[in-house]
UniProtKB/TrEMBL annotation, chain A:
This is Spermidine/putrescine ABC transporter substrate-binding protein. The keyword Transmembrane helix does not apply. It comes from the Bacteria. Keywords: Periplasm, Signal, Transport. Residues 46-55 have a biased composition (Gly residues). It comes from Nocardioides agariphilus.
From TrEMBL, chain C:
Belongs to the binding-protein-dependent transport system permease family. CysTW subfamily. Keywords: Cell membrane, Membrane, Transmembrane, Transmembrane helix, Transport. SUPFAM superfamilies: MetI-like. The keyword Membrane applies. The lineage of its organism: Bacteria, Bacillati, Actinomycetota, Actinomycetes, Propionibacteriales. GO terms for cellular component: plasma membrane. Signal peptide: none annotated. The chain crosses the membrane at residues 17-41, 82-104, 116-140, 146-165, 194-215, 248-271. CDD domains: TM_PBP2. GO terms for biological process: transmembrane transport. Residues 76-270 form the ABC transmembrane type-1 domain. PANTHER family: PUTRESCINE TRANSPORT SYSTEM PERMEASE PROTEIN POTI. This is ABC transporter permease.
Length: 424, 322, 291
């Protein structure tokens, strides 16, 4: 793909010209100007009107080497202490099958409110809908790589920790993480690795023993039964690692070109299914081998057809931890109507027992201190053959992390992904 | 689906519109007509025509620098054509990332429409003209899929085509094939057949309505004059049913052009992406909403000619339209 | 029996072959749906292998049956709500538009008519995306959700009542109305007392068409839905079919199927009764739009 300075169809945004034009427009066409004004008042946010955007440089990019503590703006203060919870309904915005029904029910009974869970397929879709302000969602479960944009646009509320005493239950590194110093805006929900999952009855070779286990996804013997995670950054980062590019947030056009070529080869070799439902498709037999989140392979054992033993499931993640590790967050959205209730829900999910119960349902490990990674198999959370799906605290020091990208780079990455998804 | 939404067969002696051609304008119509039509016309202008302008404003608009969501530009003078130009320059050539999906859409829709016609015409012809006393029952069964939601019908096939589904079981029962075909992973043929399955009722019904209205006396006349069954069909029935056939094809392939869910449900692989998938994938992706809009305009332009043809042919056979 | 022997002697006589094609087609088109409906009664959680009859997915299962799973019920009610609301808005609007256009000659009504036909053939995805952009980019007194869905659906469905009723008006002609006016009725009361009653069968037919079509709709309702409370059955099926469905999903789809069939059957009975009263022969074909 051509890497022109005016990157990939994202029209460069000439602020001054637009301001000038908007001014001209305002003078010459009063009616249209009124329309413009109407858009500025719209809840869409995007209708800030030309020139109203925040300059690109304003976006801070957090990374383990460059920890960020986000400011708390005067017009976006945390809620006061000791408020009564609202009457609900609490609107939760999340991936499908990513929250245990029993856990929700317990919260509903405890506070006498309704909890409505809406689902999204990918966080791009989610953030666009949140920005439209169309629905007053209270809680959102993104990965940490969106927090900068969310804070900058004041879409999320700073937290009042007095409602969330259970935060002390989580790994110390998450009590003041690099992406959100002092946990001002977020609490952690789950930790997971991204590796390769397969079924031994469909894939005869031992993927984990290969020189480069990622190569198995490119093996045309498995054509039609390969799955790739439908998330641009997660999928492309895996492709980068497979090709020896270890900077999974690279700004180097040459690296992106490598990724693009490998994606094209992948398409040609195995016609992969691009989905987030591998936790169902692999056990159902529609997939034989797939890029997978550790939580999904754990979950997959519950979706096997009756009579099928979970022995056939395998998962590989680099033993030295040099792969992709991630964690998802819980955030309180500013547009929601139930901030107090939302805080209580966060606290509920950080509760030791509740989070273990939830782990049992969703298969995604919470970063709870009480969980001993070495005894997950013994305690029955993981079967023997999926011991590799346990997430170790120490990996978070060596693994590659997906970071928020600068605006231009983000566009470039998205463009490569779009091309892949278009089946070119 | 209604016969009123079809063009008349030529020489049809009993066109329902015929009487109105002879009548004079009703008295008191000057005010009452516009008054009654006003709410409906306003509705269409507001929610059908105006939205198309919003699409233009988005396609030719700007992008928010941080979130890269679209900022529509309402004044045509300020429009920037970066996004449509980007889309247009990436269809063919070395940067042709959209070309394959567009070509695929054309091939899928064309093949599926041909198959639909191949299935629909004989059936509609039989039920309309030859089925005799079974007509009512057959018609009811033909209409039934029309009332069954598209999603339910696709769900049914997802179940049948699953790896341990009935299709594979039946195949392996015959013992000829191993019966472990991965039907639901990126097979063009499955998507095309899915489209046929989904849309063929939308072709049978208008075809039936059209063929049912063909004047019998002409065909009987041809038979009386010595034409055999085949040549009566070829020389009389087929030419007369041509307008109806064309309208039925349009009514089937136009909605297919925007389809993305059939490919999503029956394949899920990028290798079967259609233009509808391009739109669906990008419309909510930051920075690409404008491109989704550009694809919407592209499909609109492509379908404009057939749509105008359709509107003209239906209007012409409708006497009330001057 | 005689037809069997006739077929034996000359199997390629055209109608026989065509009859066979028709029957094979009907099996192909209806059997998969019937099988899917049957699996809603499966005792196990598989949707592909039969494990005995049970009502587990309708009522028995305390968490995931349609009766006990709130999200499935919400979807069901949202579907019915959209069906009723859209029909209530769409039919009066469409009927008035039909009568108006029928009485109004000139350039404006003729382009309005073209606009109406265009809205009928425009690929649904295009209209849905356009309306999504309107709602997310323009300040409006409503956002994504039921209102937006109803607006989208009415726009897409308006052509049914408008065109069906116009076709009926064309067969009625203007004479009756003129006669009523000759007898002293005002133009408006001539419409109300003479024309409207004659339109009732066409109105009923189009109401059934609109209702049944709306509860099957997917594209518009998905793009214009807000949170999960405004996602109707078809969207629920689409979302779940790609994740991890249980036979409860088949049960939900089966219930929708029954609702649609009931609506059509009741509509048809009403239609035929009305037809008998006004002395017109009516068949189920009218529901396929044979006006």
């Amino acid at each position: 793909m051509e890497q022109s300075p005016r990157r990939a169809g994202q029209p460069a945004f000439d602020r001054r010209a637009l301001l000038r034009n908007a001014a001209l427009l305002g003078i010459s066409v009063p009616a249209l100007s009124a329309l413009l004004q109407a858009c500025a008042d719209s809840p869409t946010g995007s209708g800030k009107g030309p020139g109203g955007g925040t300059p690109t440089e304003g976006l801070k990019i957090a990374s383990p080497d460059n920890p960020v503590t986000w400011d708390i703006a005067d017009d976006n203060q945390p809620i006061a202490d000791g408020l009564q919870p609202e009457k609900g309904p609490l609107r939760v915005y999340n991936y499908a099958d990513y929250l245990g029904p029993g856990v929700i029910k317990a919260f509903e009974e405890k506070y006498g409110v309704d909890v409505k869970v809406s689902t999204f397929n990918d966080t791009d879709e989610a953030i666009t809908k949140i920005r439209t302000g169309a629905v007053p969602f209270d809680i959102y479960f993104p990965s940490y790589d969106q927090i900068g944009r969310l804070v900058t646009a004041k879409l999320i509320r700073p937290l009042n920790h007095s409602y969330i005493p259970n935060l002390t239950n989580v790994w110390e590194s998450f009590q003041s993480p690099w992406y959100d110093g002092e946990a001002r805006y977020s609490v952690p929900y789950s930790v997971y690795t991204t590796g390769v999952g397969w079924r031994t009855d469909k894939v005869s070779e031992d993927v984990a023993a290969l020189d480069n286990p990622y190569d198995a996804l490119w093996n045309s013997d498995y054509k039609g039964m390969v799955g790739i995670i439908d998330d641009w950054h997660t999928a492309m980062a895996m492709v980068a690692l497979r090709s020896g590019v270890t900077d999974v947030n690279s700004e180097n056009p040459a690296d992106l070109e490598v990724i693009q070529t490998a994606l094209t080869e992948l398409s040609a070799a195995t016609k992969p299914k691009v989905t987030v439902s591998m936790y169902n498709d692999l056990p159902a037999g529609q997939l034989g081998i797939s890029q997978m989140w550790s939580g999904d392979i754990v979950n997959a054992q519950y979706y096997l057809p009756k009579g099928q033993s979970a022995d056939i499931l395998r998962y590989w993640f680099p033993e030295d931890g040099k792969g992709l590790v991630d964690n998802d967050l819980m955030l309180v959205l500013k547009g929601g109507n139930n901030p107090v209730l939302a805080h209580l829900f966060l606290n509920h999910l950080l509760d030791e027992k509740t989070s273990l119960k939830n782990f049992g349902y969703i298969g995604y490990q919470p970063p709870q201190n009480s969980i001993d990674t070495d005894s997950l198999v013994a305690d029955g959370y993981l079967p023997e053959n999926l011991a590799t799906a346990a997430v170790r605290k120490e990996w978070f020091d060596v693994a590659y992390r997906l970071l928020e990208l600068t605006v231009d780079n983000d566009a470039a990455w998205h463009q490569v992904w779009q091309q892949f998804k278009a089946g070119a | 689906m209604t016969a009123a939404l079809l063009p008349d067969a030529p020489e049809s002696p009993e066109s329902p519109a015929a009487p109105s051609r002879r009548t004079r304008e009703p008295r008191g119509g000057r005010v009452l007509g516009p008054l009654l039509a006003l709410p409906g016309v306003a509705w269409l202008l507001l929610f059908f025509v105006a939205p198309l302008y919003v699409v233009l404003a988005v396609v030719f608009g700007g992008v928010d620098p941080v979130f890269r969501t679209v900022i529509p530009v309402w004044n045509p003078v300020l429009w920037s054509s970066d996004q449509p130009i980007y889309v247009l320059t990436h269809i063919v050539g070395s940067d042709g990332i959209f070309g394959p999906a567009l070509l695929r859409t054309a091939v899928y829709v064309f093949t599926a429409s041909c198959l639909c016609l191949l299935i629909a015409f004989p059936i509609a012809y039989y039920v309309a003209r030859l089925s005799g006393r079974w007509k009512g029952l057959l018609l009811t069964m033909l209409i039934a899929p029309f009332w069954i939601s598209y999603m339910m019908r696709m769900l049914a096939w997802v179940n049948l085509l699953a790896n341990d589904g009935i299709v594979n079981k039946v195949i392996s029962l015959g013992g000829i094939f191993p019966g472990d075909t991965e039907w639901l992973s990126g097979k063009s043929i499955v998507v095309i057949l899915g489209l046929v399955y989904g849309y063929v009722p939308y072709m049978i019904i208008p075809l039936f309505a059209g063929l049912d209205r063909l004047p019998t006396n002409l065909i009987e006349g041809a038979r009386d004059l010595g034409a055999n069954r085949f040549s009566a069909f070829w020389r009389v029935t087929w030419p007369m049913s041509r307008p109806v056939v064309i309208a039925s094809i349009l009514l089937t392939c136009l909605p297919m052009l925007g389809d993305y869910f059939t490919s999503d449900l029956l394949s899920g692989a990028p290798s079967t992406s259609m233009v509808g998938n391009l739109i669906n994938n990008t419309v909510l992706t930051p920075g690409q909403t404008g491109q989704a809009g550009a694809f919407v305009l592209l499909v609109l332009l492509v379908s404009l000619l057939p749509m105008v043809y359709y509107v003209r042919s239906v209007s012409r056979s409708d006497g009330a339209i001057g | 029996m005689s037809s069997l022997t006739a077929w034996w002697h000359d199997p390629w006589r055209k109608p026989r072959l065509l009859a066979a094609v028709t029957i094979v087609y009907l099996m192909w088109s209806l059997l998969p749906v019937l099988i899917a409906a049957a699996f809603s009664f499966n005792a196990g959680r598989s949707r592909t292998s039969w494990q005995g009859f049970s009502l587990r997915w309708y009522y028995g299962d305390p968490e995931r049956s349609v009766w006990h799973d709130d999200t499935l019920q919400t979807a069901l009610f949202q579907t019915l709500r959209l069906g009723v609301l859209t029909t209530l808005v769409c039919i009066p609007l469409g009927v008035a538009l039909a009568i108006g256009l029928h009485r109004w000659r000139g350039r404006i009504p003729s382009s309005a008519n073209s606009m109406l036909l265009l809205s009928f053939v425009l690929p649904e995805t295009l209209l849905a995306v356009a309306l999504l952009l309107v709602i997310t980019q323009v300040a409006l007194p409503f956002t994504l959700g039921t209102t937006a869905q109803v607006i989208g659906l009415v726009t897409f469905q308006l052509s049914y009542p408008a065109i069906l009723v116009r076709a009926r008006l064309a067969t009625i002609g203007h004479q009756l109305e003129e006669a009523a006016q000759d007898l002293g009725a005002s133009p408006l009361s001539a419409q109300r007392r003479v024309i409207l009653p004659m339109l009732v069968p066409a109105i009923v037919a189009s109401a059934v068409l609109v209702f049944a079509d709306v509860i099957d709709d997917f594209v518009i309702v998905r793009y214009l839905s807000g949170d999960s409370t405004t996602e109707p059955t078809s969207v629920k099926i689409y979302n779940t079919a790609r994740a991890a469905p249980t036979p409860a999903l088949n049960a939900l789809a089966t219930l929708m199927l029954v609702a649609a069939m009931l609506a059509v059957a009741l509509g048809f009975l009403l239609y035929r009764w009305l037809g008998k009263r006004t002395g017109e022969a009516e068949s189920i074909g009218s529901f396929a739009g044979e006006t």
